[in-house]
Amino acid sequence: ALLLSFIVPFVALAEEGKRVSSTTPRGVGGQNFCQNVDKMTSQITEHMGKKEDRKVDKRDDKRENQLEHRGLRDGKLDDRRGDRDGDRTMRYDKFYARATTTAQTAAVDAFKAAVESAVNTRRTSVDAAITAYRTGVDALLVERKAKVDAAWATLKSATDAAIAKAKADCVAGVDPKTVRQTLIDSIKAANEVFRTTVKSVGDARDKVKALKATRDAAIKAALAAFKVAFDAALATLKAAF
User: Fold this and answer.
1) Burial bucket for residue 229 (CB in 10 Å: 0-12, 13-18, 19+)
2) CA distances (Å), origin 229, targets 44, 135, 210
């Protein structure tokens, strides 16, 4: 998605004999190129600026959606935990109601303490697994953003340099056809460097999958440990009754 949002404009520049872009004013080709170089190059700069603005807006929207999604998941998790807390309380009350001796009441006390401790341990482990996963994902996003932004800055710098050279060559009296072709070749080369660099950044999906697998394994282990602790506490409680 990031790559698609960074499609560089003016691919038509790479084609000899064609107009620079669909928005280029008439008469910029051939010997008339230098007469219109300021207007044409300003359109290139303006278009790249719009591309960059859309890139930033899209990235911000994606981040906002990600944080909103996390907030919803956290809210649902808190709700489930609250429901389970209430359910355990009712179960403890039923056990206390069945206790007819001091020893049985003490056994319920011990069972409750053991279960609550196991619940807290499970929640701590699950929360840690979720936090580690999110931290890892965020780090991948930051790393990719830095690399793509650097590639974009290089592209922009190269484009600005190509435009500056075209204007200088026009002032110096270089043949307009030569100036135009040099600009085409320079922007084409800058675009190719950008595409190659972004492609080399790679896809983070495999790394995200690995982080997710680690998170899921940690949560599974936490649930298994809780079950062991709960079964042991329940067995002790049953023995007291």
Assistant:
1) middle
2) 67, 29, 29
d(CA 11, CA 93): 73
* pLDDT tens-place string over residues 147-205: 999 999 999 999 999 999 999 999 999 999 999 999 999 999 999 999 999 988 877 88
132, two tokens: 């580690």
Q: And the tokens for 184?
A: 């085409």
Contact of 211 with 136, CB cutoff 8 Å: yes
Evaluate whether 111 touches 237 at the Cβ level (below 8 Å).
Answer: yes
Ranking 9-13, 158-162, 220-224 by mean pLDDT, the lowest is 9-13
Secondary structure in 3-state letters for the chain: CHHHHCCCCCHHHHCCCCCCCCCCCCCCCHHHCHHHHHHHHHHHHHHHHHHHHHHHHHHHHHHHHHHHHHHHHHHHHHHHHHHHHHHHHHHHHHHHHHCCCHHHHHHHHHHHHHHHHHHHHHHHHHHHHHHHHHHHHHHHHHHHHHHHHHHHHHHHHHHHHHHHHHHHHHHCCCCHHHHHHHHHHHHHHHHHHHHHHHHHHCCCHHHHHHHHHHHHHHHHHHHHHHHHHHHHHHHHHHHHC
Q: What pLDDT digit, counting tens, does each position of 104-123 carry?
A: 999 999 999 999 999 999 99
